[in-house]
Every structure is written in C-alpha cells, then in structure tokens.
What we know:
The chain is mainly alpha-helical and 103 residues long.
Amino acid sequence: MEKFLRNELKLTLHPKKIHVVNYYMGVDFLGYVIFPKYILPRTKTKRRIFRKMAETSQKIKDGILPPEALEEALQSYLGHLSHCDSYKLSQEIKNQALFLQTN
Length: 103
C-alpha cells in the first residue's frame, strides 16, 4: 500500500500516524468513524457540536451574533451529519436548538 501511494499518487504517510487495526474496529477519518457497514460521527465531533451550539446561543443572548446564527449553525451541523448514520443524533441536535431558541 505504501508503494502504491508513493509511486502512483505521489503521497507519503507520516510514520508515526500509521495504525494497523482490524477493519471492524472502524477507521477514524475526517470527523467520522467508518465501519464496514455504516459510518458514525466521531465522539469528539458530537461533543463539539453540542458545545458550539450552546456557545452560539450565548453569543446571541449577549447580542454578539444575530438571531439567525443559531439556525445557520444548525443547518451546517445537520449537513455534516447527513453523510453518516446519525438520525438519532440529528434529532437530539434539533431538540437542543429548539430548546436554546426558546430560552
């Protein structure tokens, strides 16, 4: 694989960033964990979404951001999650956004 990347694609891999694991454990890539039959958002990504939604809501309350900023952030996160199997998480984020808008 390393030869293919180097010769065909002219890419190199960082020697300290190569992990050999069983495929069924999932591959962490670009904010997602990719499994053989499904894709999930990375746990760190999920936490960041909820934290940023709360921060955006607070900035709106403080008058730093316009009220539509929360809806824009929500749509951005839902777009990111549309590329993986995250129906339940998407519903939780929508509920949090609704809660934050009413407070």
